[in-house]
Design goal:
A five-stranded antiparallel beta sheet has the order 2-3-1-5-4. By secondary structure, it is an alpha+beta fold. The longest helix is centred in the middle third of the chain and has 18 residues. Helix content is about 20%, strand content about 15%.
Length: about 260
Amino acid sequence: MSAGKTKDAKDPKDPKGTRDAKGQKDAKGGGGDARAPKEARQPAPPKEAKQPRPEGKEPPAPKEQKERKPERPAPVPRLQILYREAVVKQLMEQFGYKSAMQVPRIEKIVLNMGVGEAVADKKIMDNAVSDMTKIAGQKPLVTKSRKSIATYKIRSGYPIGCKVTLRGRRMYEFLDRLVNIAMPRIRDFRGISARAFDGQGNYNMGVKEQIIFPEIEYDKIDAIRGMNITIATTAKSDNEAKALLSGFPSRSEIKSP
């Protein structure tokens, strides 16, 4: 090493480069400071103020146009009007009720269809559900087996039937169609039994063919199926329930609203 080497100078192998006497680091491309003086620098443009984000989530995207609602509400079923105007007064005079709230009324109608053939083919259950949907006006519930029975090749949890519960307006509309349209279409119809009450004011009846309902098209069904219809009332005895159901006249005696 030469004697003229100063203390400030560093080994040329140093990757950091050399520093001048003032301790400033030289630029790699050449001597002098590569930065321009502060006076010659142009002022940076002012930054745009950030807009505060609205609280909560972003506004949802516009949804598709909803279905058009009917201009008028659905009319009240005529059997419901008949019950309020005529049947209530008739039962109050017959049984001596002090208040209209004591008069029995129809609480619900339950349709139940057993489809044991669906164990072998699931399409049979789909067809049964489709038929009951057309009859009742709402989608039924598929019922499943609770126990495994080897004789019938049924395991626990297999779909073996479907049922639907009707209340309110749909209940009265179905009762009107059942009594005035479906029952007269039963083959060799001679009336219904008066002994089909269960002792608690409920009435049960069976239908052997679903084609008695006008909603079912005979050419589009795969098989003839029957169903059980239960009319549940709030009556405490069979006599009160019989008087309640007898108070609804036939179609010829009802005046449309």
